[in-house]
Amino acid sequence: MTDHPFPFRDPQLSFSLRADDLLGRLTLDERIAMLHQFAPAVERLGVGPFRTGQEALHGVAWMGPATVFPQAVGLGATWNDDLVRRIGEAVGNEVRAKRAQDDRVGLNVWAPTVNLLRHPLWGRGEEGYSEDPALTSAIAVAYTRGLRGDHPQYWRTAPVLKHWLAHNNETDRDTASSSVRPRVLHEYDLRAFRDAVSAGAVAGVMPAYNLVNGRPNHVSPLLEQHLRSWTDQPLVVCSDAGAPSNLVDSEHYFDTHEEATAASLKAGVDSFTDHGTDSGIMTGRIRDALAKGLVEESDIDTAVHRLLSMRLALGEFDPGLDPYAGVEALDTEEHRALALEAAEQAVVLLKNDGLLPLEPRSGRTVAVVGLLGDACKLDWYSGTLMHRSTPLDGIRERYGADAVLYAEGVDRIRLKSSDGWLRVPEAGSAAGGGARGAEGALDPALLAGRTDLPPLTCGGEATELALVDWGDGVLTLRTDEGLYLSVADDGYVRASADEPGGWVVQETFRLEAVEGHDGGHRLLHIGTGGYVSVAADGAKVAVSGEKISGDDATVFALETVEHGADAVARAAAAADTVIVVAGNDPHINGRETEDRTTLALPAQQDRLWRAAHAANPRTVLVLASAYPYAVGDAADSLPALLWTAHGGQATGAALARVLAGDVSPAGRLPQTWYAGDDDLPGLFDYDIIGSRQTYLYFDGTPLFPFGHGLAYADFTYTGLRTEREGQRLRVSWTVANEGGTAADEVTQLYVRAAGPDETPDLPRRKLVGHRRLHLAPGAAERVEFFVPVAELGHWNVAHGRWTVEPGAYEILAGASSADIRLTATAVVDGEAAGPRPVAARGLEAADFDSQRDTEIVDRAKADGDAVAPAASGVEGRLLYTACDFGDGVDGLALLVSGKGSIVVGVDGHSLEVLLPGTDGPYDYRTVEATLGLGGVQDLHIGLNGSVRLARIDVVTGKESA
Q1: Which in 94, 108, 650, 665 has the greatest CB count within 10 A?
Q2: How many degrees, rounded to 5, is the angle at CA 203 between CA 312 and CA 266?
């Protein structure tokens, strides 16, 4: 006997049995209601409402003040698993603390993002950890373990990994398909999710907006085939916002929303994030799908059971037993210290000719210059700052305010129309606006701009504006009071925003030259697409909701009062040393919904460091950015160069301590810094093997390699040993600090097949271990790694399995992927996998060894792959090496759809098979090609027209038609 009225309230039972009991007590409508992000209460059972989805990428986001840690890419740059675990604990505790204050805060956190930083122009690169799956996995495991907590039964928070799968483009992100060949899928994209899920600290995943191999991620069979095979615990799959509707509205993958919703549910989506807090539309679609027989009640029950299991693990039904229920740790001393430690560890010293460290001393003056010199930038997934340290703040505090000069470097301008100077009227008694979203918002995209301030006008007195060109001609304009020109919902232009921000940024403009007006410009508001027109009632970009056209725009003459480079040069010339702080604003030119267009530093900022250096050779460039930049000239000419991601609330203090030598820098680059745009593949090219992407395959010379980072001490590596212990390698070496200061070293372990030039389709080197060490001067430490032999392998498309080929493998110990200090060799015995058994098993079209001008597409809407030409009028080519046709076959049977032709080539001979066409892309038929084949040969396939090739089998024992 127990005191609990229902078994689901009995903590002595397993979560699974309790979920079974509660599920059985819910009506069908109550169960369906639980499938929306905002699940209502079931008052008759005492079950409260529940919300999936609390953003917590590098601190509690969107819900008001919280500790703001460095951006995720900055956490990746620490290469410090233990640190990131402690940050996860702090963030999880702050989620709990804020939940106690505000029940809008959810315990199902949507973090971390484990999409790999394959392409440096991806707009959301700031959200990921690394281009490398092993480093990404290690950091993700650490963060999720911290978020989850260490209680064996109850979870601090329930982390959801984002975004499944192969998602690295914001351009056309809800309609573009990532073509992911099997090797890239298994060796790269799945790996980033697999290790974190297998570690047991992940509650679920969120599918991405994009399609993979022609099929939307929200109906991907990989959710069941792979994701849920990695763990025994129930994983909750939460849709991305609006993605269920996209299946019909933008992707046109299904004809009706009922079909789309049913397919998502059957594929494994459990919680539907769509139409905001209005659950009625989605639950209505589920009811209709059920009524039409598109889903069964069992499909609904499976999803609800997973959701209930997660809620049980979060202690919802056991408040007296939940060890995290009373957590109140918000903005504690420990969290502030942790934010500083994280910001320090994220700083990467890219180059140092001896100028750093720059110790503070009497009489030494430092000039801080640059557009980010007095900035503490937040991104879309940041919380509201409770503490703020800019580089200028930190350097003034560390070096003394009297020893620090400052010049922002903005261009100061005035704009004049035929009616007078553009001016900002007095605000009168309007109340201050405060930071955008400071009070918290379930959806900050809905936050509106201020309308309580008067709009700009034209008159006799000009308002000087600080102009910044963030690149591509995207401008911000700011008053001396620190307010940015912005546009609210009523279409008027006001000086009203503390910072650029919002889902659609309302603070960016573009100046366009007007033909026939010497020096005349129109001012385009980028967010609305309307042009600024100044009328009697003020400046506006829209009237009654209709944007103002260029023909009706006010023409302005631009007068430059001061060039920013001049101000920077004056400050630089007056100082002993110059610190130039350049970088990006995370809401402009590279963010969610917007990819970057170039690796180049914006021209205005490029001019600033050059002006500083011309005036003072002792110039340090600090790049505070979410992304890599191609700054080859700066790297060649400046004595010191550093990079840090936007470091959160302690950015400035951390940077000052590194510059002063209080802390030796030891951040390491989590992604390759390429020398220029010419080194980059296309944004939509996901074949990292074929296009030689990331440090794994890149053949060129990067500006700075993956894993690179310097320190204020020198480290030696000695005594590399490698021993085989069953199915793992024991690898060890000694790292010693030969310098005169205590410092961290990030020691790294890579492997590769011996003779990499002979195996160009395998990684040039692959990270399999890393460790961040702190060593006193003269101290040494022996590090040891256990590497599974499987890490030496790759996905063998010929046999459809993971394979470690027999032979020699190099074991590489070093300080970066390019700075290898020690090398050893390990030999793996065994039998080689051998050629493709085509005669016995045929082959899947997507299992090619190399390709050109093709894309992988969906064979059917539910499952399977096919291959098609990537573009109309271009032949797609496929190569299948070492195909074993045995004693001989009469020809090939090709499973195809579409219209066009297939060219089959073997041993210099080719045959073209014409295809008259089928009834749609999913209507497959088999055509045969007569071609005598025998032995082991390479098979070449050419695809033309709208052909989709799904599979190739052999024809034996009869004449081929």
Answers
A1: 665
A2: 95
Contact at 8 Å (CB) between 479 and 465? Answer: yes
Q: Mean pLDDT, 10 residues at a time, over the chain (961 residues)?
A: 80 97 98 98 97 97 96 98 98 97 96 98 98 98 98 98 98 98 98 96 98 98 98 97 98 98 98 97 98 98 98 97 96 98 98 98 96 97 96 98 98 97 81 60 73 95 97 97 96 96 96 89 98 96 95 96 98 98 97 97 98 98 98 98 97 98 98 98 97 97 98 98 97 97 98 85 97 98 98 96 96 98 95 94 97 98 98 96 95 97 93 93 96 94 98 79 38
Neighbours of 385 (CB within 10 A): 18
| Token pair 């615990």 in the structure block, residue | 233
Parallel, antiparallel, or unpaired: how do β-strands 619-624 and 640-644 relate?
A: parallel
Fill in the DSSP letter of residue 455: P
Place of tokens 């990079």: 643
Residues with catalytic annotation?
240
CA distance 829 to 807: 6
Distance CA 851, CA 181 (A): 10
**Residue with the two structure tokens 């509201």:** 384
Q: Residue 893: CB partners within 8 Å, gap ≥ 6?
A: 926, 927, 928, 952, 953, 954, 955
Closest CA to 274 of 257, 290, 289, 259: 257
Nearest to residue 313, comparing CAs of 14, 674, 753?
14
Sign of torsion, CA 931 936 938 939? positive
C-beta neighbour count of 475 within 10 angstroms: 23
Q: Pick the closest to residue 866 from 918, 943, 803, 940 (CA basis).
A: 943
Which has the closest alpha carbon to 335: 38, 95, 15? Answer: 95
596 vs 710: CA distance, rounded Å: 28
- CA-based nearest residue to 876, from 920, 844, 846, 907: 846
Q: Distance (Å, rounded) from C-alpha 574 to C-alpha 324?
A: 55
Q: CB–CB of 251/174 below 8 Å?
A: yes
Query: Could you tell me which residues come within 8 angstroms of residue 44 by beta carbon, excluding any fewer than 6 positions away?
Result: none
**498-518 burial: b if 16+ Cβ within 10 Å, else e:** bbbbbbebbbbbbbeeeeeee
pTM tops 0.90, yes or no: yes
CA distance 657 to 348: 13
